From TrEMBL:
Residues 15-162 form the NAD-dependent epimerase/dehydratase domain. Belongs to the NAD(P)-dependent epimerase/dehydratase family. The keyword Oxidoreductase applies. This is NAD(P)-dependent oxidoreductase. InterPro entries: Epimerase_deHydtase, NAD(P)-bd_dom_sf. Keywords: NAD, Oxidoreductase.
């Protein structure tokens, strides 16, 4: 972790994270705390890191419990849900109904800023070289991607009806370091993810915005006005890992190993639905 706290104090108020015991949630909790934020978090099971400070054991089905746990918080980062493709029952309960319950709990608790963890799989079936743009048409990877289209739309509707500051955070290839050619465009480091969330939490203008969760990769091509507007300046670049990738036999001249923006998950989804699969 190489975060440098901003010279200006973090905004007052507690940040609530759903899915805070998960992979991204655990990283984000530690980094936001290091930046000076007060954090509460919820998950269906206790965190593996053993840090129970501010922890609420809650299911996304429990809207009342979430609203009570969020009381007094000013911001929600909704990371909760199922993180990959699954059957309809799982995706419907955790990603559709779960997102609805989290946003309604936030409304009931009087939360003013909502950062919804969307995904590049919102448009995962676009070609691999697609520009990462705020107005990218939805072309979701399976049920998982469709749930992110729904979550973004729900937050957009919430921001239209109430003075909510809303961000659809389209998380790309989030991992400690890039491992394939696709990551040279799509990688997002844990530190840059925290920098992005920090800038979203400092923004004060109500309304809905899309922001792409990518690092400052040399090869990333994006049209991301929200990042410019809120001052998100990523500091990591996948290119610094290119020697290691080449040594591992990765063809770093390729845009991606897969034809679609969503990479392996998109390829798997399409393969399952071809005749004879």
């Amino acid at each position: 972790m190489t975060l440098t706290p901003s010279p200006t104090a973090v905004p007052e108020g507690t940040v609530f994270i759903t899915g805070g015991a998960g992979r991204i949630g655990t990283d984000l909790r530690a980094r936001l705390a290091a930046l000076g934020y007060q954090v509460r978090f919820a998950d269906i099971r206790p965190p593996a890191d053993g840090n129970l400070d501010g922890f609420y054991q809650l299911d996304l089905a429990d809207q009342d419990g979430m609203a009570a746990a969020m009381a007094g918080c000013r911001a929600l980062v909704h990371l909760g849900g199922h993180p990959r493709e699954a059957d309809w029952e799982t995706i419907e309960a955790l990603n559709f109904t779960g997102a609805y319950n989290a946003l309604m709990a936030a409304r009931r608790a009087g939360i003013s800023t909502v950062i919804y963890a969307s995904s590049n799989h919102y448009g995962g079936l676009h070609p691999a070289d697609t520009v990462l743009a705020a107005d990218l048409a939805p072309h979701p990877t399976g049920l998982y991607g469709a749930s992110k289209v729904f979550g973004e739309s729900l937050l957009r509707a919430e921001c239209a009806a109430f003075p909510v500051i809303g961000f659809a955070w389209r998380i790309c290839a989030y991992k400690p370091e890039p491992v394939n050619a696709r990551d040279l465009r799509m990688w997002c480091s844990p530190d840059d993810a925290a920098r992005l969330v920090d800038r979203c939490l400092r923004w004060t203008g109500p309304g809905f915005q899309v922001i792409w969760g990518v690092s400052g990769n040399t090869r990333t091509i994006k049209n991301d006005p929200a990042a410019e507007r809120i001052g998100y300046r990523p500091q990591d670049d996948a290119e610094q890992w290119i020697g290691r990738l080449r040594a591992a036999g990765i063809d770093t001249a390729r845009v991606s190993e897969w034809s679609c923006l969503g990479g392996e998950k998109a390829a798997d989804w399409l393969a399952q639905r071809r005749p004879g699969a």
